[in-house]
Amino acid sequence: MTSDTPTSPAAPDGPGPAPEHGVSRKTLLRAAVAAGAAVPLIATGSIALARDAARTSAGRTLPPTPFCDDGDDPTPDQMEGPYFKPNSPLRTDLVPAGAPGTRLTVSGYVFGRNCVPLSGVLLDFWQADDAGAYDMAGYRFRGHQFTGATGAFTLRTIVPGLYPGRTRHIHVKAQAPGEPVLTTQLYFPGEPRNSTDALFDPALLMNVRGAGGGKEATFDFVLDVDGGPGPDPTDPPTEPPGGTWTTGRAYTAGDRVTYGGSAYLCLQAHTSMAGWEPPHVPALWRREP
């Protein structure tokens, strides 16, 4: 259910180290796009990434399931940022009635490292509204869904607004049934702030084109798991990686929390902060069996 409660002003998600991953033809193409180099364009004038380039060069339509013939590594991860909320609604359309903004449809596939489409994958999306604010009181522009039998997904939302310190982006968590959670972000080509955002990664650029008064985007996720149909979707949706542990909270000796699927006992009173996650500070937290 959506909420019309006030939103919180967005703040930068914070700097972070650039992810390390191999270089594929798709990665090189996206890097060239970010740098402004000349790259192939499809008929609509938008950037031709790996799947679109294959379609246009061959003069035919690609099969409905993706295949990775260019040695792509799994989709790189990125930090969660301060605005994730668990328990988002199950829905593919994030736009509240009457909400302003340029309509955007994002579609694609999720597949494993062996190029087999993954069904039942949890995709949890969240983003800023047209004014660059995240709804922390309700679930505006938040929602999760599951991939279908072919590994396909479709998200209906708007182009997110800008806020200080960041370029335009959409957050997402992806989890194949019983597998680890991938937390990452999707980016828009041609954005001036791509060159100044410390978190921006050209490997996470969507392919975006105009569609009437809105936009259409495509992106294929590659999870670091063996491909194959999942038995059952992750249900309920996975909690945030921090579990019950949160930043900015005053903990006292004897408090118990969960983090990353493990339980921890607080050893010393302290106020938690980023970087002091239980696994990283054994002086403050002891892992319990």
UniProtKB/TrEMBL annotation:
Domain annotation Chitin-binding type-3: ranges: 242-288
Biased segments, Low complexity type: 1-11
Keyword Cell wall biogenesis/degradation: no
Protein name stated in the entry: Carbohydrate-binding protein
PANTHER family from the UniProt entry: DIOXYGENASE, DIOXYGENASE, PUTATIVE (AFU_ORTHOLOGUE AFUA_2G02910)-RELATED
Family: Belongs to the intradiol ring-cleavage dioxygenase family.
InterPro entries: CBM5/12, CBM_sf_5/12, Intradiol_dOase_C, Intradiol_dOase_core, Intradiol_RC_Dioxygenase, TAT_signal
Feature: compositional bias, Pro residues: 230-240
Keywords, comma-separated and alphabetical: Dioxygenase, Hydrolase, Membrane, Oxidoreductase, Transmembrane, Transmembrane helix
Chain residue ranges for the region called Disordered: 1-24, 56-76, 226-249
Sequence intervals crossing the membrane: 28-50
Gene3D superfamilies: Aromatic compound dioxygenase (2.60.130.10), Carbohydrate-binding module superfamily 5/12 (2.10.10.20)
